Protein 1
Amino acid sequence: MKVRENTGQKEHDRIRLNLLCRLVLILLLSLTIGLSGCTSFWGADHFRIRLNEAETNTAETPGFEEGSDESADPNIPENSETAGVKTSEINRETTATPVPPTQSTEKSSPTTLSTETATSSGPSVPTPRPTSGPTPTPTIKPTVNATNTPTPKPTATATPSVSPTPTPIVVPTTGTYQSAMANEVIALVNEERAAIGLSALSSNSQLTSAANIRSPEIAVYWSHTRPNELGSCFTAISGLSYWTAGENIAAGQTSATEVMEDWMNSKGHKANILKTDFTMIGVSCYLYEGTYYWVQFFAG
């Protein structure tokens, strides 16, 4: 019985000594970590509680093999779970408390913090290798190729062609009016009208004056339009009110009978001579450079 008690006492002393050694080692580690900036770790009170539990278990049973799993082993390597907890606490306390003067002032550099921890006294902590991030791909700026802008060739401005001013047509004034031949034409016109039962046309001085203007004009400008852009032939009539009018012209005939035959053989000219709406007539015969020029004006 005494032998069992001595054996239990020795076992109890061995466990107690072992726990005291671990407590001293933990205190040294806590002091080392505290100097490196760590302020949190398992305290001595925790191990005092574990010591009391060990003494209680020793009083009840002679062995302490069952509690060996929860006790610390002095041969645990430094990169075990305890080292992992320390690293975690270092990272936490570094973000919450100011960095001690012995550490680097660069907060964003984890490599500097690990170096300071490794150089402090106590068990060495494995320095984490810096992880290389993805190398940023340099942005290639697009090169702008200079483009040669073609120089516009001067275009020749077309000079507007100036139309030559038309030479005014000179109406002759050296001819002679043949009044007797003109009156003979009026008589022949009324005969043709009487033959088909139409009333005779009266001679009108305004129409005669207009016919005398037109006969020299047709000598140099053969047209029912007046020369020098004077307009229609009827612009020659002035001082006369009428609602319908007509003109017959001829050239080269040497007598009133000849010119009347030519007019009566032309449908358009004959229509003017026999038109029922006409009531007045004026005739001109102009001799110019051996040629007779004939004009008839009708109005109604």
Note: The helical segments are 2-35, 44-60, 81-96, 110-119, 179-195, 205-220, 256-264, 267-273.
Protein 2
Amino acid sequence: MKNQMRWLRKDTATRELNGSTAPKPLIGTYVLFQVTVKCCEQLITITMYTIKRMAEFDEWLASLRDGVTRIRLTRRLEKVQRGLLGDVAPVGEGVSEMREFFGPGWRMYYVERDGMLIVMLGGGDKSTQSDDIARAIALSRTITE
């Protein structure tokens, strides 16, 4: 089995990974890279995402009173950065929602850019879903490339 790692982003701080120098992510910044694994004569490429959190998303996440919920939603974002999007659904105009089925039915809204950057727009629960979607779509229109 042959593994190759290609790092697509440079930071000033580095760490060792598989004998190569790799960028060390800053707090709140996720590093995008691709892993190519050759196994059984098949080539598998796993794309990881860079996540950018808008201020509105951070405000919403910080406003949650339950610390366990904040941790679970943050863990979901960590899975996304590794390329595991989980249960997602489009809601319109390029905006999609990450659905979590615990508590009141948490939703996190995002747009994907260039197949590798995810911009987190906001969140909410099932009871405020239509208002949250409208806010996320409006916010997505203000994003410049």
Note: The longest strand covers residues 117-124.
